[in-house]
């Protein structure tokens, strides 16, 4: 039976999972509370990483080093980069990259991490397919997509930047943690899966959409995680 590390960026996500966990032990490290126990009868560790790539990467390394997790799942919300992906829909990672890596002054393309063999970190195909299937079963009221997730330490809320991200990286959505978690997992040869519920359109409507749709987005994500844990 595999042990899963579940990273949520927001307190609301973690609280909903914590409420249904059993045999919970709590430990604080690097300012993060790691909750170890069982979820749907499966061993897991649930933690809120906080916002941004550094928090997310540190959190991932602790899960791997201290808890020896076999899989890292990252949940959260994101801004859509594709017109067909609407608020409330779900995106499952096929791969992830960091759009704010910029070593173009040394001749590299945007998003390329110098001296690494890859800057695009892939989710195992079986995990992507499984998550899509489970999401369709437990969240029949929304649509689910699979593809690239692009990350950076920026909240994208302008049309110009959104268009640049879409043209340059062909991502389905943008957020602030997944790419860093993917890189940390890759460096440790640990499988990962990023789950993103769409809370805004990553343009100048973001400030209007976010608060209204966040709660529903988290609800769908938590429902997916609970069902997914049972079939891993």
TrEMBL record:
Pathway: Amino-acid biosynthesis; L-methionine biosynthesis via salvage pathway; S-methyl-5-thio-alpha-D-ribose 1-phosphate from S-methyl-5'-thioadenosine (hydrolase route): step 1/2. Its EC number is 3.2.2.9. It is an enzyme of class 3 (hydrolase). Keywords: Amino-acid biosynthesis, Hydrolase, Methionine biosynthesis. GO terms for molecular function: adenosylhomocysteine nucleosidase activity; methylthioadenosine nucleosidase activity. One of its GO terms (biological process) is L-methionine salvage from methylthioadenosine. SUPFAM superfamilies: Purine and uridine phosphorylases (SSF53167). InterPro entries: MTA_SAH_Nsdase, Nucleoside_phosphorylase_d, Nucleoside_phosphorylase_sf. One of its GO terms (cellular component) is cytosol. Pfam families: PNP_UDP_1 (PF01048). Residues 4-229 form the Nucleoside phosphorylase domain. This is adenosylhomocysteine nucleosidase. The lineage of its organism: Bacteria, Bacillati, Bacillota, Clostridia, Lachnospirales.
């Amino acid at each position: 039976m595999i042990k899963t590390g579940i990273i949520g960026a927001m307190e609301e996500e973690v609280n909903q999972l914590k409420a249904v966990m059993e045999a919970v032990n709590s430990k604080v490290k690097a300012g993060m509370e790691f909750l170890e126990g069982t979820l749907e009868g499966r061993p897991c560790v649930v933690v809120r990483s906080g916002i941004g790539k550094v928090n997310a990467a540190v959190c991932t390394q602790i899960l791997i080093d201290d808890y020896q997790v076999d899989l890292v799942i990252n949940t959260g919300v994101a801004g859509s980069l594709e017109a067909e992906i609407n608020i409330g829909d779900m995106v499952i990672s096929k791969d992830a990259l960091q759009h704010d890596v910029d070593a173009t002054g040394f001749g590299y393309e945007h998003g390329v991490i110098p001296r690494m063999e890859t800057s695009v970190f892939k989710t195992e195909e079986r995990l992507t397919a499984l998550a899509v299937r489970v999401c369709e079963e437990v969240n029949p009221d929304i649509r689910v997509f699979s593809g690239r997730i692009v990350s950076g330490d920026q909240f994208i809320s302008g049309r110009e930047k959104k268009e640049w991200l879409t043209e340059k990286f062909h991502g389905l959505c943008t957020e602030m943690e997944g790419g860093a978690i993917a890189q940390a997992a890759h460096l440790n040869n640990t499988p990962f899966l990023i789950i993103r519920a769409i809370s805004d359109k990553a343009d100048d409507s973001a400030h209007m959409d976010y608060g209204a749709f966040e709660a529903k987005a988290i609800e769908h994500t938590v429902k997916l995680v609970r069902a997914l844990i049972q079939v891993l």
